[in-house]
Write a structure and sequence with these properties.
Length: 345
């Protein structure tokens, strides 16, 4: 059975597993106060060209979104995202559970429009009763998005400028950041993200790690400073891993010799091959996206035929006879697996 269901079905890159095995030979202090976390943080600062950045390691994406949004959003405020955003759809109300309403804008193939963000804020503050309402307190976007699309540098800069104009930090969810940055046509680099965003994270769970996300507070301006007592806030969320050195070992490996971006490119290369085959065979791509997530609208007999041999991801119903399915490659997808899928299409 082929698996193109998601990008986290394989445990971890061999270099990451080797790093954990080596770490197992040494006794480290707990909660991220160890030499491996320090080394990984330094490697990430160097890769981001952000010497003043504060790097913290957490375990998973929803956990990271909840902790960061809670830390950067005032208690009287909510977080602005698009209606397809992960906190609004697939996080079981985790943000509301921690006390912040999710305020939504319409998505455009998964992306937020800066002009619409400005209009939303203008409308809020023009209301004479806005003090009785939930303030927009932070802005959340993802790179790549839920639909596999990517922001350009100018789009992300416009969102940052708009967010700051209304007193909000810009938070970039980077669960699939490696796949976004290495996609064909992307004009953003990791230093660009660190320059533009106030806080972002580098996803490991979906890009070669056993688990883990590296949160980066860029500390380059008013909105990007690490919240006071952030370690304590992580602990309050039950998110402080005692064996923090396991996270440090993984990111130290991923950011040695460019491994993180190198393995991410493989996922996009395999996805490009599949997209080309789908188009050549007459399938309908639902979204034009350049990353490892491919969305294709299929009739139900075709889905049934393919799922005899391939695990695919469900996205949404298109109509009574068609469903949007996701084909997802990963850092570990091989040429042979891609060839086998293409032969089945």
């Amino acid at each position: 059975m082929l698996s193109f269901e998601n990008d986290y079905s394989r445990a971890a890159h061999p270099a990451v597993l080797d790093a954990i095995a080596r770490a197992n030979e040494t006794l480290y202090p707990g909660y991220g106060s160890d030499a491996l976390c320090a080394s990984a943080a330094n490697r990430i600062r160097e890769a981001c060209d952000a010497p003043d950045a504060d790097v913290r390691f957490l375990v998973g994406g929803t956990q990271t979104n909840q902790v960061v949004i809670d830390a950067i959003t005032p208690p009287y405020a909510g977080v602005v995202t698009v209606d397809s955003g992960h906190p609004n759809v697939h996080e079981a109300g985790a943000i509301e559970y921690s006390g912040h309403k999710v305020l939504t804008l319409p998505h455009h193939d998964g992306k937020m429009d800066a002009a619409e963000l400005a209009a939303f804020c203008d409308t809020f503050y023009a209301d004479g009763n806005h003090e009785h309402m939930v303030y927009p307190g932070a802005v959340y976007v993802s790179m790549s998005t839920e639909y596999g699309t990517i922001y350009s540098a100018s789009e992300l800069e416009a969102l940052a400028e708009t967010a700051h104009r209304y007193g909000m930090p810009l938070f970039v969810d980077g669960a699939r950041l490696g796949y976004g940055l290495t996609a064909t046509g992307c004009d953003l680099t990791l230093p660009d993200v660190a320059r533009i965003a106030d806080v972002f994270y580098i996803g490991g769970t979906k890009v070669g790690a056993l688990f883990g996300e590296a949160v980066v507070f860029t500390n380059h301006g008013e909105y990007s400073r690490t919240p006071r007592h952030f370690l304590t806030q992580i602990k309050q969320h039950g998110a402080l891993l005692a064996k923090g050195f396991v996270l440090g070992a993984q990111f130290d490996a991923l950011f040695t010799d460019g491994l993180y971006l190198r393995i991410a490119r493989n996922a996009n290369a395999q996805a490009d091959r599949i997209r080309e085959a789908l188009v050549a065979k007459g399938y309908t791509l639902t979204f034009e996206a350049p990353t490892n997530q491919i969305f294709v609208t299929l009739d139900h007999p075709t889905i049934a035929r393919l799922e005899r041999d391939v695990r695919l991801g469900f996205m949404e119903k298109a109509d009574e006879t068609h469903t949007v399915m996701r084909i997802c490659t990963s850092w570990s997808t091989t040429d042979a697996q891609t060839d086998a899928l293409i032969a089945l299409l």
